[in-house]
Hints:
Belongs to the DnaG primase family. The protein is of the alpha+beta class. It has a 5-stranded antiparallel sheet, with helices on both faces. It has a 5-stranded mixed sheet with strand order 13-12-14-15-16, sandwiched between helices. It has a 4-stranded antiparallel sheet with strand order 6-9-10-11, with helices on one face. Helix 12 runs parallel beside helix 16, helix 19 packs antiparallel against helix 20 and helix 26 packs antiparallel against helix 27.
Amino acid sequence: MSSTVEQIKARLSIDDVVGSYLKLEKAGLNFRARCPFHNEKTPSFFVSPSRQSYHCFGCNKGGDIFTFVQDIEGVDFLGALKILAERAGVEIVNDHRDGPRPNERLFQLMALATKFYQEALGKNQPVLAYLADRGIKTETQKHFQIGFAPDGWRQLHDFLLGQGFILNEMLETGMVIKAERTTGVRGEVYYDRFRSRIMFPLSDSAGRIVGFSGRIFPAGRSAEASAGPEVAKYVNSPQTFLFDKSRLLFGYDKAKVEMRRHDFAILVEGQVDLIMSHQAGLANTIAGSGTALSPEQITLIGRMTKNLIMAYDYDLAGLKASRRAITLAQGAGLNVKIAKLPAGQDPAEVIKKDPQDWLSAIKNSKHHIDFLIDALLAEGKTGLELSRLVNENVLPIIKALGKKMEQAHFVAKLSQLLGIGEEAIWSDLANLRLEPDSIVTNRPPTDQTLVSDTRSSAILNKIFGLIFWLESLPERAVDPNQLIDRLKEIIGPDSYQAEREVRIKKEGALVMEAEFFFQGSEKLQTEILELFNNLHLENLREQLREAMQALKKAEAVGDQLELDKWLKKCQAITLELNQYRK
Length: 582
Ligand SMILES: [Zn+2]
């Protein structure tokens, strides 16, 4: 595996990889951008081609191409390896002596099952005719690897057995189930989870198949099987080691780049809606599971774009059901719009009739609060009843907007609509209580080990960055040992060791910062002198603060000896400080 990593690193540069996700600006020898991992207005995310690394000074995230892809794509190391290997044109070689990793086997099993279903689909004329009737073209079927699980109890089971997989692996991926009713049957009975179903593979963000959604076919089957239990129209893979539906967005692997390119994402409900929207040219479409959105799914969207268009078949009831998803998304800083579809039609039906209708529905999507107000009006409610509905449904969402400017826009609109003064609406808003997770928060995570309130700590960061940077250079304009000696003079050798140990953990980030500030500087000596002067000054100020405190304490207990001692100390420090200021 390590040789694969080296090969990939040799072929891909950090600025190319990061640059394919973010807009990079040149900043000296480095590049800078707005950080994709926290909200910010001024760029503090730096990419260093010479070090093949990146670092954000706002949220302290940093690393190489692998950690970057892991974080931005929301994949594990193997997922990032797959994405980057493909990009670099490097084949992933397994050099584990004990064979591939356990979950690598499970991914292989899912890939083979997908092929098995695809082959079965090719031989099944009625299913192909059905898909054509739904408007799904052959190339789209291939692109989404749609398949068919043939009728019968152990078709996939037997196929996988023939491919060398063991029963336990089939159970772990949820593809095979152990029978519950075994009365009168000797031994245990196992059978395929998906039988006589059109199979839609579900991929993780690296494009590996982790589960399936299976639609019953033919549709009449559920009625025929009256002897057995009710047959569900859709069956999905269960929660497994590979498949966690709350952390997955269907179609995300195919949509993520387009989401970033167009700077918006379209969220639909069903697999067929998703597939048809891609076919209609909107490859930035994703699907959740039902109308709910988990915080993890919202994070996935937010990495690619801050603009989300939801396209469900919305009536008032539908809006209520998705209110939590909307407020969660809004709370995470997403702008949520809603696309209006003809009543009772889902996106797949609209697209099949005329893809243009779908495109214009997306184009004419409205801010979700405007949409909600329109939906209330469409119910024909007036007067007090309308006011009550607005209070229940609209005000909580306006309050959750967080930004006063945006709130004011909708308060004005409601005031006009309801014929109520704006003051009254503002006071209703003020009295509302919100669920904590719906409030907009933009605070980046902070790293306590590095972030300190004292100015001297910030100066020490710079000085240690300089030292680490100089130590890493083959040719140095300044000897780092000079800096170390001067530092020991100011803060003492013991403090020097302690401060160095704290900062060695963040060496990469500090070096990058130093490189950014000092590389190619013609006044390096002057700048170093200034840094040490500032440090000395801050150090004196801190000493003075401590001495003053000790002085007060001595005064309080009436200890004359101590009082004299600290008074002298304070005077000495003040004198030194005054000399500095001249
Ligand atoms: Zn950041």
